[in-house]
Amino acid sequence: QVQLVESGGGLVQPGGSLRLSCAASGSIFSAYNMAWYRQAPGKQRELVATIPSGGKTNYADSVKGRFTISRDNAKNMAYLQMNSLKPEDTAVYYCNARHVAYARYDYWGQGTQVTVSS
User: Fold this and answer.
1) Of 68, 96, 61, 62, whose CA–CA distance to 83 is shortest?
2) What is the distance between the alpha carbons of residues 103 and 117, in angstroms, rounded to a whole number?
3) What is the spatial distance between Cα 72 and Cα 29, in angstroms, rounded to a whole number?
4) How far is residue 111 from each of residues 4, 7, 10, 65, 84, measured CA to CA in Å?
5) Rounded CA gap, 56 and 25, in Å?
């Protein structure tokens, strides 16, 4: 069992930055691939970025060059640095952990709201 708690969301003006954090507990963090998803009102949840336990990061085309995903296995933390934010980035952002070998071990945080508006 993995518990995930996101933080760092808020209201920011277009062009601004936010850093989301995801604190994990309850299991061996390095055994999980981590990801950030988002869901805007009236839309389906979409993948934003992934960072495997060991390997290459991956990003949605809409955030490439603006967002950076990272993790600190020693601290059981994952992060999403978001720069040059746009109004269309407004959504609830969710942290996800999926076991590297057993996909059924798939966990979600409660989400954190990001609102980009002037």
Assistant:
1) 68
2) 37
3) 9
4) 9, 8, 12, 23, 21
5) 23
The per-residue pLDDT string of the chain (118 residues; one tens digit each, 9 = 90 and over) reads 899 999 999 999 999 999 999 999 988 888 999 999 999 999 999 999 999 987 799 999 999 999 999 999 999 999 999 999 999 999 999 999 999 998 899 999 999 999 999 9
DSSP secondary structure of 45-114: -EEEEEE-SSS--EE-TTTTTTEEEEEETTTTEEEEEE-S--GGG-EEEEEEEEESS-TT-EEE---EEE
Task: Tell me if residue 29 falls in helix, strand or coil.
Answer: helix
Given the structure tokens 């950076």, which residue do they identify? Answer: 68
Please give the radius of gyration of the chain, using alpha carbons only, rounded to the nearest integer: 14
